[in-house]
Design goal:
Blueprint (H helix, E strand, L loop, with lengths): L2 H28 L4 E6 L8 E6 L3 E5 L5 H14 L2 E6 L5 H4 L2 H7 L4 E4 L1 H22 L11 E2 L4 E4 L2 E6 L10 E4 L4 E3 L5 E2 L11 H16 L4 E2 L3 E2 L8 H19 L3 H11 L6 H11 L6
Parallel strand pairs: 3-4, 4-5, 5-6, 10-12, 11-13
Antiparallel strand pairs: 1-2, 2-3, 7-8, 8-9, 9-10
Pfam family, one: Lactamase_B
Keywords: Signal
InterPro entries: Metallo-B-lactamas (IPR001279), NDM-1-like (IPR050855), RibonucZ/Hydroxyglut_hydro (IPR036866)
Length: 297
Amino acid sequence: MNFSKSFTKFALFTPLVFSAATIAATSNATNPPLQLQVYNASAHSFHVNATLVTGTTEAVVIDSGFSQADALRIAANVLDSGKNLKAILISNADPDFYFGAAALKQKFPQAKLVTTAAVREKIKGKMAAKLAFWSPKLGANAPATVLLPELLDNNQLSVDGQVIEVRGTSGVLAHRPYTYIPSIRTVLGNIAVFGQLHVWTADIQTATERAAWLAQLDELSALKPQRVIPGHMLPGTPEDISTISYTRDYLQRFEQEAAHAANSAALIKAMQQAYPQAGLGIALEIGAKVKKGEMHW
């Protein structure tokens, strides 16, 4: 081996490697942490959350609210931030996550409306029926139209160079992913985690799906996030890992009580006693009836 030639090549290459590493380190050091502003809707909108993620110049909205009033409040947060809204990410396929998208797009036409493939398919299959069902109930607060998001490239976005990842996009719950921001170790944009509410169980009916839900909660816990923004929460809920534990404990207690409850009324009573302060009673009412075979969902 020609050691002198190899050393010469190494000497020429090394400064380039160190230079690239130095640039990356400098970029990370000088890039301020992303900031989050959570919009927590009222009980009329199922206490759903939408989050504005901002950097030095750019912004992304994760989920768009349920009513037109929700969407306008989220839009006001964007305007107050003074940042360029580059994207609206719809994390899940329930109407309270995407009904506000058209109003946001009208205000911020440059922003891309995106979601994952599985979520897009769910929205596409039910959006007309959901709009027909909810419009009379919401009245003037209903969207005039519902927009179908475009496909999200590579399951990720960025804000001023900092990555926002969408995970949990495969398996039986591919249509229920979650969003994670590694740079600030934050879980958000999800339907799996609830805060101080009765958990919406009606959509997850098989043993395989329930096991997958618990597995996803374990996956979230393993990230050791510094902040967890539930998909739905009561005002004042701590935005931390305790909400993951709360949801897991609730699901397990629900299954235990359902196993020996004679009917939905008995199941509802047992869960109300176990969680006397929990909000979103409709989630328990419907979930219990579906679980006991008294309602088709």
